C-alpha cells in the first residue's frame, strides 16, 4: 500500500520517465541474456517463400516421379547415353592415337537435355546430333553467362534485392538491358516457345489416344490427377476442369516445364561431369568400377540378355558406392534457401559459441528468418563423415564408415543433403539416380578417362549449380576436358 500511495503522489512525468528507463533496462538485459540468431557467426541469408501454391504444384507433379515411373525410364536413359557414346566412338576412331580430348561436360549437358526431354515430355530434342538447335543454343552456357563471375555491383544488388518489392524486381527483370538479363530473357523466350509447342503436341497425341509414360502425359492424361477431356483440345484446359485444388494454369504449366527442363538436366550433367573427373583422378577406382560393370555384363550375357536391366544394379555395390560418393563429394546444388514461416527452436547437435563467448545448445529461429543451408558443408562435415571427409573415397559406403558417425538422418537418400530435404526435396531424385546409373555404366564400360594438362585448372563455378569451368576462362562457359580412349575388353568380355 505505501508504494501505491507514494506512486500516486509522484510527478507523472517522473513516473513516465522511470517507466521508460525500466523498459530500456529490461530490453538491454533481455538482449544480452537471451540467445539470439544475431549472435551466431555466419553469412547473410536470402530466400524464397513456401506456401500453398507450392504444395498444389508439387502434388500435381509427384505421380510422375515415383520409383516405378523412374525405373521405367531406364532404357530411355540408356538410349541417350548410347547415342552420346557412339559419337565419342566416332571422334576417337578418326583421331590419330585412338584417343581424343573431349569436353565431356558440354556433351553431357546436351545428352541429359535429350534424356529429360524424352522422359518428361516425350519430346525428341536431338541435342546430341545437333548442337545448333535453338533449344541447345538457349541452354549452352546459360548458367555461366547469367550467373558466373558477378561484379561487385551485381553482388551488392543481389544483397539488397530482398528489400525491393517483388513487383519492382519483376519490372527490372523484364525491362533491364544488361547482357545477363538479355541472355536470360532470350533463353527464357526460346524455352517457353518449345514448352508451349510440347503442350500442344501432347494435347493432340492424347486426343488420338497416344499418351505415354512421360510426365507431361501423366499431367494431362488418364493416370494423373487430371482427366483429359476429349471435348477440349488442350491439356491445360482439361486440367482446368479438374479438382480446383490440383490444377495448373497454363502459365504454371509452362513454368513447371521450364523448371523441369533446367533442374532435370543441369544438375545431372554436372554431377556426371564431376564423377568423370574423380574417376580420371583415381584410375584405381575407375578400374574397379569397370571390373564390376564387366562382371555384370558377363552374368547378363550368360542369361542371354544384351542389355543391363534395372535389377542388375542391385548386384553392383561398387557402382552404388561410386554414385553415392560423387553425390556426397560434388553436390550439384551447393546450398538451399529457406524462410521460417513460424517461430521455432532448433536443437543443436553440437554447441555453438556465440560472438559474445556464450555457449548455446539450441537456436531460436524467429518467424521470417531467411536461412541458407549449405549442402556442400553438410556433405563434407568431418563430424559426420570422418577425418577424410574431403577425400573422394567410395570405400566408405562399403566398409560402414559412412554410417558410423551418423547421429542425424537427413534428406531422401543415404543421409546426403544433395537432394535437399523436407517439403521441397528434389522431386526428381529417383529419376536422377537411374539416369546416372544408365550414363555411368555406359561411359565407364566403354571408355577410359584420363586427366589432361587443363585438369589442374578446373574449378567449380557457383552458378546456382556447381559448373565445371577453367580458371581464367570462366567466360568460355562449361569446360571439363578429359582424354577419352576406348576401354579395351578381353576376348571373353565381348
Ligand atoms: C543429381 C541430380 C540432382 C540434384 C543434385 C538435385 C538437387 C536438387 C535440390 C538440392 C533441390 C532443392 C531442394 C530443396 O530446396 O530442399 C531440387 C529441387 C528440385 N529438383 Fe532436383 N536435383 C537433381 C535432379 C533433378 C531431376 C532429374 C529433376 C527432374 C526431372 C529435378 C527436379 C527438381 C524440381 C522440380 C525441384 C523443385 C522441387 C520443389 O520445390 O518442390 N531434379 N533438386
Automatic annotation (TrEMBL):
PROSITE patterns (alphabetical): CYTOCHROME_P450
Alphabetical list of InterPro entries matching this protein: Cyt_P450, Cyt_P450_CS, Cyt_P450_E_grp-I, Cyt_P450_sf, Cytochrome_P450_monoxygenase
GO cellular component, as recorded: membrane
Keyword Glycoprotein carried by entry: no
Protein residues bound to heme: 426
Keyword set includes Chloroplast: no
Compartments reported by the entry: Membrane
One GO MF term: monooxygenase activity
Signal sequence extent: none
Pathway the protein acts in: Secondary metabolite biosynthesis; terpenoid biosynthesis
Cofactors: heme
Keyword set, alphabetical order: Heme, Iron, Membrane, Metal-binding, Monooxygenase, Oxidoreductase, Transmembrane, Transmembrane helix
TM segment ranges: 12-29
Pfam families: p450
Gene3D superfamilies to which the protein is assigned, alphabetical: Cytochrome P450
Similarity-based family: Belongs to the cytochrome P450 family.
The name this protein goes by in its record: Cytochrome P450
Organism name: Rhizopogon vesiculosus
Taxonomic lineage from the root: Eukaryota, Fungi, Dikarya, Basidiomycota, Agaricomycotina
Amino acid at each position: 500500500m505505501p508504494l501505491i500511495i507514494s506512486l500516486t503522489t509522484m510527478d507523472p512525468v517522473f513516473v513516465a520517465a522511470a517507466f521508460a528507463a525500466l523498459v530500456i533496462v529490461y530490453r538491454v538485459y533481455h538482449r544480452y541474456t537471451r540467445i539470439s540468431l544475431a549472435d551466431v557467426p555466419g553469412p547473410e541469408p536470402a530466400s524464397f517463400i513456401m506456401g500453398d501454391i507450392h504444395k498444389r504444384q508439387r502434388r500435381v507433379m509427384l505421380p510422375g516421379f515415383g520409383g516405378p515411373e523412374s525405373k521405367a525410364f531406364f532404357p530411355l536413359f540408356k538410349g541417350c547415353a548410347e547415342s552420346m557414346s557412339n559419337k565419342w566412338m566416332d571422334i576417337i576412331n578418326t583421331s590419330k592415337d585412338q584417343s581424343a580430348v573431349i569436353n565431356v561436360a558440354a556433351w553431357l549437358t546436351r545428352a541429359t537435355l535429350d534424356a529429360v526431354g524424352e522422359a518428361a515430355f516425350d519430346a525428341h530434342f536431338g541435342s546430341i546430333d545437333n548442337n545448333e538447335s535453338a533449344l541447345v543454343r538457349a541452354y549452352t552456357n546459360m548458367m555461366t553467362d547469367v550467373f558466373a563471375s558477378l561484379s561487385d555491383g551485381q553482388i551488392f544488388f543481389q544483397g539488397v534485392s530482398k528489400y525491393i518489392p517483388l513487383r519492382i524486381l519483376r519490372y527490372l527483370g523484364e525491362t533491364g538491358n544488361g547482357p545477363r538479363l538479355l541472355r536470360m530473357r532470350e533463353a527464357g523466350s526460346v524455352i517457353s516457345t518449345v514448352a508451349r509447342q510440347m503442350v500442344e503436341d501432347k494435347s493432340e497425341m492424347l486426343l488420338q489416344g497416344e499418351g505415354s509414360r512421360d510426365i507431361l502425359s501423366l499431367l494431362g492424361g488418364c493416370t494423373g490427377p487430371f482427366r483429359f477431356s476429349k471435348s477440349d483440345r488442350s491439356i491445360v484446359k482439361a486440367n482446368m476442369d479438374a479438382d480446383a485444388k490440383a490444377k495448373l494454369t497454363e502459365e504454371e504449366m509452362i513454368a513447371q516445364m521450364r523448371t523441369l527442363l533446367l533442374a532435370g538436366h543441369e544438375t545431372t550433367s554436372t554431377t556426371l561431369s564431376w564423377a568423370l573427373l574423380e574417376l580420371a583422378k583415381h584410375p584405381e577406382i575407375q578400374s574397379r568400377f569397370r571390373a564390376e560393370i564387366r562382371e555384370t555384363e558377363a552374368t547378363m550375357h550368360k542369361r542371354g540378355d544384351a542389355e543391363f536391366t534395372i535389377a542388375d544394379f542391385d548386384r553392383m555395390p561398387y557402382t552404388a558406392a561410386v554414385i553415392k560418393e560423387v553425390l556426397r563429394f560434388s553436390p550439384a546444388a551447393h546450398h538451399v534457401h529457406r524462410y521460417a514461416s513460424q517461430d521455432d527452436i532448433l536443437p543443436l547437435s553440437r554447441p555453438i559459441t556465440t560472438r559474445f563467448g556464450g555457449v548455446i545448445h539450441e537456436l531460436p529461429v524467429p518467424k521470417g528468418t531467411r536461412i541458407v543451408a549449405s549442402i556442400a558443408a553438410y556433405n563434407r562435415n568431418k563430424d559426420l563423415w570422418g577425418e577424410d571427409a574431403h577425400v573422394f573415397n567410395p570405400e566408405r559406403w562399403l566398409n560402414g564408415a559412412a554410417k558410423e558417425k551418423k547421429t542425424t538422418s537427413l534428406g531422401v537418400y543415404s543421409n546426403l543433403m544433395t537432394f535437399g530435404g523436407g517439403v521441397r526435396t528434389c522431386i526428381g531424385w529417383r529419376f536422377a539416380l537411374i539416369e546416372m546409373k544408365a550414363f555411368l555404366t555406359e561411359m565407364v564400360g566403354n571408355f577410359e578417362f584420363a586427366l589432361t594438362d587443363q585438369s589442374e585448372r578446373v574449378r567449380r563455378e557457383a552458378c546456382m549449380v556447381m559448373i565445371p569451368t577453367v580458371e581464367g576462362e570462366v567466360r568460355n562457359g562449361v569446360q571439363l576436358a578429359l582424354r577419352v580412349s576406348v576401354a579395351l575388353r578381353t576376348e571373353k568380355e565381348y
